[in-house]
Design brief:
186 residues; mainly alpha; 2 domains; 72% helix; DNA-binding protein; DNA-binding; DNA binding; Lambda_DNA-bd_dom_sf
Length: 186
């Protein structure tokens, strides 16, 4: 790999960390390990081609372009956490992955979304986190972190609340966005 390709890959991994909390290679490898998958099966569950998954993992591509795939990644992360905690068996995880594969990503009002799936296998759903991730996926599907930050700065004087919304949900980590969401409810 030449220096230009190496710089491009590093830049893509930095963008992935901004958008998804870590480089997708590390995230996908952890899902493969935690859920007992191989790369080809992960691609099927996510609804990606094997070459696209490989490009995302290697940093040749930075962004998941389809918000439904982003939502499936989030659902698999939640499922993997439940498997690691021992709250979901291997058989339940296999069934849940099939449900995730069949979803189009859903939305916060969709009955086929993560909460229904999670509830069906006895995994407590976190509706706040799900709503936050839906907002994040939507924002991140239309713009990258740099553009969202720029828009936030442009709006900060005239519309500080909107600027904060863009910054928190478009760029910050999910944990921070959940805290923000909870602090503005009720």
């Amino acid at each position: 790999m030449d220096a230009t390709q190496q710089e491009s890959t590093e830049r893509a991994r930095e963008q992935q960390t901004t958008w998804y909390g870590e480089p997708l290679g590390a995230l996908f490898r952890r899902l493969i390990t935690d859920l007992g998958l191989n790369q080809a099966r992960l691609a099927v569950v996510l609804g990606l081609s094997a070459p696209m998954l490989s490009q995302l993992m290697s940093g040749q591509r930075a962004k998941i372009g389809n918000p439904a795939v982003v939502q499936r990644v989030r659902s698999l992360q939640d499922l993997a956490a439940e498997v690691r905690a021992g709250r979901v068996s291997a058989a339940e995880a296999t069934s849940a992955m099939e449900d995730i594969r069949r979803t189009s990503g859903g939305n916060v009002l969709s009955p086929s979304s993560t909460a229904t799936r999670s509830g069906s296998i006895g995994v407590p759903a976190n509706p706040t986190k799900r709503v936050v991730r839906e907002i994040q996926a939507l924002l991140r599907s239309v713009s990258d972190a740099t553009e969202i930050q720029s828009a936030s700065r442009l709006l900060s004087d005239a519309h500080p609340e909107l600027a904060e919304f863009l910054r928190v949900y478009g760029v910050a980590r999910t944990r921070e966005a959940v805290e923000h969401y909870e602090s503005h409810q009720g």
